[in-house]
Amino acid sequence: MTEVVKVEGVQKTFGKAKALSDVTFTVKAGEVVGFIGPNGSGKSTTIRILLGIIKRNAGNAEIFGKDVWKNSLEIHKRISYVPGDVTLWGGLTGGEIIDLFLKLHGGGDKERRDYLIERFELDPKKKAKSYSKGNRQKVGLIAALSVESDLYIFDEPTSGLDPLMESIFQEEVEKLKNAGKSILLSSHILSEVERLADKVVIIRQGEIVETGTLDELRYLTRSTVKMETNGDITAMAEVAGVFDFEQDGNKATFSAEQEHLNEILLAAGKLDVIKFDSSPPTLEDLFMRHYEG
Amino acid sequence: MIMKEKFARWDILFLQYLKRDWKKIIIWVLGIGLFSSGFIPAFKELAKGQGLVGMYETMQNPAMISMVGPTPIDSAADYTLGAMYVHEMLLFCGLITMIVSLLHVVGHTRKEEDLGLTELVRSFQIGRQANSLATMAETVLINVLLAVVISVVMISFNADTITVEGSFLFGASIGAAGVLGAVLGLLFAQIMPNSSGATGVGLGLVGLLYMTRAGTDASNPDWSMINPMGWTYLTYPFTDNNWMPLVFVLIFSLVVIIISFVLEGSRDMGAGYLPEREGRAHAKSSLLSVQGLFARLNRGAIIGWFIGFLVMGAAYGSIYGDMQTFLQSNEVMQQMFTQADVSLEASFTSTIIMVMAVLVSILPIVIINKLFAEENRSQLSQIFSTKVSRTELFWASVGLAIFAGVLGTLLSVAGLGGTALSVMESDSSMGMADFFAAGFNLWPSVLFFTGLSALVIGWVPGAGKLVYVYLAYSFMLNYFGGIVDFPDWFLKTAIQDWLPQMPVESFDLPVFITITAISIVLMVIGYIGYKRRDMAEGA
Ligand SMILES: Nc1ncnc2c1ncn2[C@@H]1O[C@H](COP(=O)(O)OP(=O)(O)OP(=O)(O)O)[C@@H](O)[C@H]1O
Ligand SMILES: [Mg+2]
């Protein structure tokens, strides 16, 4: 698979403050990559570098094999972007702004625009200053989704949207995904990432700390096991790969490392199990581990 | 009870605002204060010998009166230092104070509301209208301070005819002008649908009041007494010492404040009284380009300023008729002009054209600074990620600014020349072509300010407002250069001074080309910076 986005050792400082110290990841053709990390970790900064809005201090960043700063115009012809806080010109209506974006991007599809305006239930006749936060966001989304692009970059696209609109957005992104488009999606809504992303990139304090498919990342994380036995459950505490062991009579809860799953099951088998309940790590567990560092 | 609730805790906000603004307050009070009072020694020099008599004759000219206001003195012998100082300084200083106060009040009431700050403040235990009251109290206090500083500095010069009472009246008149500006700002902050509307209409009204008083002052100053702006300079300190107009200011301000508070009390936050219309569902094709977008975003400002230029030109043009009558009845002046071999019209035109060139320069600066304001509010980020390049954004903006400068020059000169030629009864030595020549002779200075703004936005975008400071500086230098004798190199720090004063002096092609070329170079350097720098976003 070809790499649509390729970021290597990118650094960025603002004055003295280092916003990005080492950002490396890729988005391959047809891949949906979730880009997640705590507030202020550098997601938007990375995205702005990819868009050529700001200039990196070191490292390499390419989209479609072209340098994001030098060849930004050629790149921009084939991408769509939605910022997390769509700001609009108060004096123009939503409909006018959408039309303007389509025109400036080139290759907008009027039918698709009207379809999306209806789906997102936007009143295009209102002046932008009277739009609520969510409605402003819809304007940005409709504009970005109405044009034909190869790469879609979303920076917290659904912030401010109600759950119904959020799921409409997710459906539309799924359609893009099925059509083989590449997507870079930064979001704090983990269920959104879990539903859409093939791969997750986690950034913390300007550094990529984890990259991989959800399954791969899950493997690195411990499952939570709840069990109840007739035998003396205390023995489980000593088994390799068992952590955070908590006992309550003949019941226990602990986290289990995936690598040692076999040992754990063998040990459990000797204890006359009444109940065994293992839940895989949720995405949330995974993030918590990284966010809290 | 309800009153109390509406304004609850305004005093806390008031103290908070003083703390927040103390630097601005110091600059404001000392800047305007020293400017208003500090020229006394310079004027003392000017008054030596036959200075007062000569100045009296010059200032009898309706053209001068329309610019600086009238004097109650009717014989050159009674024209004292105090009379002259007030005559030349009071109206102008009051006008500046009025504008600064108006901007301050709108900035801290309506603008904060538009930005959503007020919403946050109101969520605390703070009355609905406490913010407005605190801002007004702050602005009034600043103007009182200003009045005191001006009076004290004037008295300290201990100059002949600069009396204590006169000094206090002079200071109080300027302070009163500030209060007037503040209440007008508050009023329009309630009526207009947003802060830029409030600022625009407020400043427009100030301009209108200034223009109407130019007309009434030149024909009959009594009529200026029904003009609120008239109350700020018809006090005639050091001569008539008339405190009455300040009482009018007080009553007028109280009425406007009460009206404003009632209006504010019954409107929704973020809304105004002038309704907003429903817009179009789809864009017209004229909007669908970077140029179209910028034209649309600046449309209000451009149209407003264009009307202003035209009216201003017409207002000054209407004086030409009075000027001829005046010249025929005044032998001293007739002699002065015949000796110097220039017509009064030509001499007046050269001064007025300069004033207009400075005012026309404001619009291109507004337009270019708008580009950065857009960028700073992240409004361009989604546009920037389309195939629109920085080159397009930059040159679309600069191009619009150049266009506004050309058309602005054209309109102001057309207004001036057209009206002047129609009101002059006897044959004039000047034709329409002379007016246009004089106007476009100064056009490179307008272009220079366009270039300067473009340079600043490319390299130090945060400093866009500094261009206005230089513009104001060069305006003052030109304005007072005619009155006070500055050394030549000092005058040359104002860009307009490099260009000849047409139609009195003759056209200088090399200078014209040089300044035009320098301006274009500034734009190109600005462009290079704009291409290279980070967009100010998310900062
Ligand atoms: N223009 C700027 N000037 C100075 N510092 C900046 C600028 N832009 C971003 N930063 C800093 O860089 C760091 C990363 O910010 P960034 O906006 O990329 O975070 P983020 O991951 O998008 O956070 P969030 O989840 O809150 O959106 C922050 O510490 C921020 O303060
Ligand atoms: Mg962000």
From TrEMBL, chain A:
InterPro entries from the UniProt entry: AAA+_ATPase, ABC_transporter-like_ATP-bd, ABC_transporter-like_CS, ABC_transporter_ATP-binding, DrrA1/2-like_C, P-loop_NTPase
UniProt entry tagged with the keyword Transmembrane: no
Recorded superkingdom: Bacteria
SUPFAM superfamilies according to UniProt: P-loop containing nucleoside triphosphate hydrolases
Molecular function as annotated in GO: ATP binding; ATP hydrolysis activity
Start and end residues of each ABC transporter domain: 5-230
Keywords, sorted A to Z: ATP-binding, Nucleotide-binding, Transport
Database matches in Pfam families: ABC_tran (PF00005), DrrA1-3_C (PF13732)
Protein family (similarity comment): Belongs to the ABC transporter superfamily.
Protein name: ABC-2 type transport system ATP-binding protein
Biological source species: Lacicoccus qingdaonensis
Automatic annotation (TrEMBL), chain B:
Keyword Transmembrane (UniProt): yes
Highest taxon listed in the record's lineage: Bacteria
Keyword Glycosyltransferase among UniProt keywords: no
Transmembrane segments: 25-43, 89-109, 130-156, 168-189, 196-215, 243-263, 301-319, 352-372, 393-415, 435-460, 467-491, 511-530
Keywords associated with the record: Membrane, Transmembrane, Transmembrane helix
UniProt name for this protein: ABC-2 type transport system permease protein
The species this protein was found in: Lacicoccus qingdaonensis
